[in-house]
Structures
1.
Amino acid sequence: MLTRRKFIIVVGGVTLAGLAGCGGEEEVAAACEPRPFRDDDECAVCGMFISHYPGPKAQACLRNGRLLTFCSTSDMFVWLLQPDSVPQLRKAYVHDMGITDWDHPSDDAFIDAEVAVYVTEHPVMGAMGPTLASFGREEDARAFMAEHEGRLLRFDEIDVQVLNDLARAHIERMM
């Protein structure tokens, strides 16, 4: 039989567990930052190892605290454009190619993927071929376009069609 004392203990325990859960959320939020790539990091989309390839790469911090790594900005968008991905996402990061080297992007050059600007339809290859060149400043993106051509896009303008066009351009270059 549930006595008044047992009831108070159960309710108090549930309350404390809820408060402990809130504290955990704060820890997850605080830990939601990009980290340096490791030699054993694999792309969450294609499974290839990431660290030794050129071009901008990405990371996505999930609501559960897990960090996904991507060999390219394009693969990050492949993941983001899946219907079940967005509810899981807390924050995504990409390399700012305006402040780092294309062949060896620095892990100190991550920026918020949602505020970055992207250049597509350019000939410079990333880890998986054509990729979206990511920049923290529109001026840097335009300077890249002056040298390599391309088209400027914002985060919310990147959709499946943009990714399909990247793949199609790559196939055409290979022929």
Note: The radius of gyration is 21 Å.
2.
Amino acid sequence: MEKKKRSLKVPHTYVLLFAMVVICALMTWLIPAGSYDRVIDEATGKEVVDAASFHFTGDGGIGFFDVMKQFIAGMESSSDIIFLIFILGGSFMILQDTGALTAGVHSMARKFGKRQNLILLLFMFLFSVLGGTIGMAEEVIVFIPLLVTLCNELKLDRMVALAVVMVGARIGFTSGLINPFTVGVAQGLADLPLYSGLGYRLIWYGLILVVTGWYIIRYVNKIKKDPTLSIMHGVELEGGEEVSDENADTTLNARRIIVIVGFFITIALMVFGVFQWGWYMEEIATVFLILGIASGLISGMGPNKVAQSFVRGTKDMVFAALVVGVAKAILLTLQDGGIIDSVVYYASGALDGLPKVVAANGMYVFQLLMNFLIPSGSGQAAATMPIMAPLADTLDITRQTAVLAFHYGDGFTNLIAPTLGSLMAAVAVSKVPFEKYLKWVMPLCLIWIVFGLASVTIATLIGYGPF
């Protein structure tokens, strides 16, 4: 029996990712390499494909040595996220050692008591609004350590923290309310009024929000009744063990209150900087580095203790940081193999001439799969919408429906796509093993995909337009 159990053990995260890289390398030998020419779209100023320019290049097939080089290249190209993870790990360890976060979360948990499910749902709703309006994705990573602390206080596992933050943000991002990076770009490329058709998207946003809230709270209630049902039960944390805060000093003194206020000021500054000054990973990492050092000194830790805490925190994030680089190797293998444009070309040809309901859902399924190859929302729009928008015209499908199929397809598989750096970073920072996360999230992802099929079908039948 023991041997059987060992044989059924899920592979380590790195083994799973390495296997995906190998599969992608094999695909570069099976699918002919091809390319579209890129031109600048006058309406949006973005570089997009020229739909009539596809040609086979004949340079396909990635060899063994080049495949292994992709892991190094993945680390280099993901350096901004990797260093953000290290800085967050070090800074949050300093914050943890000040006792301010633990004291603040303890006070919140004590105040809300039995209404913890409501608090979790409110956090999820807040992140969904941020995802649906300002397109917050990578930025939510900074909230995960805070929610992990809260969930520890509520006797819940890290999966709940990850779900509330990351899945919550994906609800809004995927539903495409007024997301500038998906709906905004796609509608511009399809010559549609910006953010038109919002009413229809709001209906499906509400449905997805409700079913996701139910899914998370159902899991919360299950593990509260029986902790052994937790997805994290018996899991040895990569990069450091869980530290118990049961005997910690949770007094909210003046210094800790100043640190907590500083934390929320930093969050507000980050959000403002991202959308007013164009901040990205480097600037976000900088403000959290300042927050960590300042918090340690304000709390009276002293320079040496601050440095020791920071190093300890970064050590805990080695596994998390490396996962992002290893996952990026999957995407680089596909890009270097030159098969991404070929997949777009073959898929568009297969959709041409199909009945419009079948074709619309074919567009949706195509975008679901393309999201693994082009995880960037705006990048996927630039690569596919110049082809899908005119194709929709020939199939008697509204361009609004084509955009709907795009942003659902781009968003739903963001829950499971290992090529998406922000997903891998969020999972890694939460210290939830990727294979465990997949087990938890896959049923929810399938529910979302079914909702997408229903939404695209109805949109096709009613001639979804700008209302």
Note: Residues 13-26+63-462 form one domain.
3.
Amino acid sequence: MRERRNIVELWKRGNAVAMATLVRVEGSSYRRAGARLLIASNGEYAGAISGGCLEAEVLRKAQWMVRDGAHIERYSTLFDDTADIPYGLGCGGTVDVLLEPADTAEFEAHLEALEASLRGERRRIITQLPEGGAKFARCVLDAAGSAVFRSGPAVIDASLPLYDEILAAPQRLIVFGAGDDAQPMVRMANMLGWRTVVLDSRAQWAKRERFPEAEIVATSVSGFTIERDDAVAILTHSYEQDREWLTRSLAAHPRYLGLLGARHRSALLVRDAASELGWTLERACAGLFAPVGMDLGGDGAEAIALAVIAEIQACVQGKIGSSRRMTAEMVEEQVTRGSAARYQQTQCAL
């Protein structure tokens, strides 16, 4: 997402000349289909379509290659001096790159769709690829499936080569808690191009100057809605705030919900939230990562932030493996152990 922001920012300067988009990959490739490289007339560029193997070639020849309009260029990343496809560089595959000039309505529609996605608006881009006699054409659809752009009278023919792409909105991370440990978490999320929201009822912590990268920094959740695609991290270090926001977050079913804190404290919070919602402990635990973050080792705010961001990224990408999760049995054990310890302290005091 950060790369997408950089591309849009460069486009806004008004001197773009061409766009290269990776539309097909055969075999191994450093980048997946959908990777982009925007090239400006002054030599500036944003994005990447490989690990550095192809960028120099495309940058050097981009304006010349699009002089007659959009076309497909094929590059081999297999190391083979005798190959008919140029630039074998040892990465292990073949890629098809769509090169399109920046002076077309299709290009403008492409960049406007990228910009809209960064605002949180879903877009689908269907591009008829200029190969096999097909004419270059494009259709852009909004989240409801309505066309916001269509290439003149050209009709997208499903029997012709197409590149169909969904532009999802950037991941949104909601951080409940504006303490010092939240700052590196927000910075790392910003590096990934995520949208970040920081909420904390304590005005001395929830300040814009403490979180310049955040989209929203607020002391009240009035009117604020947690969406199903959101990632939520709860780390206020205030039991009452954590209980309120854990309850609210569980009910919203975000794609990721993490709770910072010691196991016993977390167990008490889960028990209270489940009771308030009328849920079983099993149901509450199933929607929660606690202790929050992957077990990467290390100590301090930055290490915790890395563990949390890594776990969210894995969860969002469907790559989550063995994260630390609480179970109903663990909650009951921790609550019972804490109650027993308090009883023993009371007896000793007597």
Note: The mean pLDDT is 88.
4.
Amino acid sequence: MLNKAGNGLNDSLMAMAVSVGICLMLYIALISSLAITLVILAIGLGLIIYGERTGGIEKIYGVMERHKGKALGIMVLFALVLPFLLSGNNYLLHVIVIGGIYSIIALGLNFQVGSTGMVNFAPAAFYGTGAYTSAVLAVKFGISPWLGMICGLFMAALLGVVFGFPALKTRGYYLSLVTIALQVIFTLMIINTSWLGGPNGIPGIPAYQLFGYSFRKPLEILGFQLPYQTNYFYLIFLLLGLVALAASRLYNSRIGLAWNAIEQDEIVAATQGINLTKIKLLAFSLGAAFAGVAGALYAHYTSFIGNEDFDFSKSLVLICMVLLGGMDNVVGVTLGAILLTIIDEKLRDFADYRMLMYALILIIILITRPQGLLPKRNRKYQIKQESDAGYNVTVTMGGK
């Protein structure tokens, strides 16, 4: 019994140590120069590769799963304290807010690219749909941004259904080409529609308000005056937590199993009774809904949106976040989105060579780690059986 208690304490301390380490690495990467950020990324990548070769990574996964309450508690505490640590630098707080917005989109995109194996090159179109829907309702009709966010969610999901139903009749490269066409059509529609602001965009988008308090006002907590970005930071990371919880539950549900079955082999999935069109359309519409929420948040945070915020290059960046973090892994996708947002902002010092440097970094990472920082794991099932002696026996099985 003492050994079990000791092992439990050691596992608990390990889970807390890993959580603290991840938080510290993200914080140092955020406040440091590009060179130090890349060094931290390389160290983290090296530790993950070493852990996989020695079997330690599976032990850490198991410990984090058993003590996820403590691990999540440390993550929440870090999120609550971070605005105080960055109170003297509004720009860094802005970067982490944008990283949270992109994380929400990436988690929705992961349903398609990671879980179901559908490469969607138009996440920015659904992102823009949510942003323009909420912005137009607020600026032209005076509708509350909170209601506008809900409308943006439904409009993006509706676009996912309307476009996805015929598009999902195609597969592989053909589906990718169709999504590219959607992205191009969306960008051209924004530029050529004066009612949507055309190439000039939509300025003067109002901020969120809660009981008369504007989110564009500084926040005072315990005598500390924090910049207005703090209001959006807490809102966005609260929604990110809810979205990550929903994504995790979906992954462990029958729907998640059906998505993985389709990704492995559509024909075999269909023979097992999976409705391919219905399940794939669900992945498409849910991913679009997540992007719609993120778009509404972005519009009311920045107070201005334009076509360049939702063009094809933005879609490529969002896809890279899923690939780098690790497809079909909620933690990996979130981590990849935040890391790439930090790296992308630090590359602004290179001006015209920014995208070249960005591409080189991604190529090096993907060559070193093609499956992403935290790749998908084999599913483990536990089947309870009753033995001849009348005892319950748990059998653990592995599978995709």
Note: The chain has two domains: 1-85, 90-399.
